[in-house]
Amino acid sequence: MTLQSHRTRANLVPNAYRGVSVSHARLPLDPDRLREHFLGREAYRRTRFLVVRDDAGGTALLRVEKESEAPLFSPIVEVEVLATPDECAYVVAPEADTAVPSTLARIAVERAPEARAVVVEGRYEHVSFIVNPKPLRLLVQEVVPPTPAKLFDQVQRLLAVAEDLPPILPVPDVITFEELAAQAPSPRYLLPCSGSGVAVAGAATAYLDQRPPAEPWTLLGCERSQGIHEWFYGERPPTVEMCPRQRGHQTGTAVLTKCCLLEDRIEREDGRVVVPWGASLDQVRDALREVALMWEPEWRPV
To answer: What is the pTM of this model?
Structure first.
């Protein structure tokens, strides 16, 4: 039998770290010597990958095929060298859950950006790896405060435990109320909600949810805020648009954004996924699955 090469595959991660074994070898970690050393040796029935380390801390990464997976141990009959020591980094990150692809990718990008393969020893001293890390860059559009931006925080929390999603690297794309106000200087501003605790420096600030007496203000809000204002006061005020959904983005970029006109569903449009304002964790989890289907439909662990 012959192994189909996985050496060039992007975002290669194992489907379970129990299939990764660590071996210490006193020999040069070059491809020929590694194949010679491991061919014919017995391996545990679940072992599919070998992290081979030498006394100097060098690390090589192998994928192996055994004669059979039926017995407890079986001879190795095929060896593919996924990464040699000059291509492979070994990172100890005690806080990392090595079962999570996005965590492996984040550590690779942050701790070993030049390495083609990164082996991570993480929580519980479990070991896993990622080869050719190219995580999907996901732009998460938000308005702050609150800080941290809620949607971005939800995405980070979900990706920290998402074993079934491809490697995703969330990037915040936030705008502040101060920046919105700078687009239309005014002595008075109306904000949608007092819960944000925002007050624009140098200007009077009122909050639409408190239904204050009408003033000649500028609304920092969205279509829903304008509709509420019209209901309260009979007209729509001068407005600076704050809706993340209305913000532009570069074509070919994965985007997760939100809109308060959505109340109980998520939508896909133009490479973006849109969740309701105040989305639950379940809704954001569903949105991340939609992002994965849209941008990484072929990705699978091996």
So the answer is: 0.91
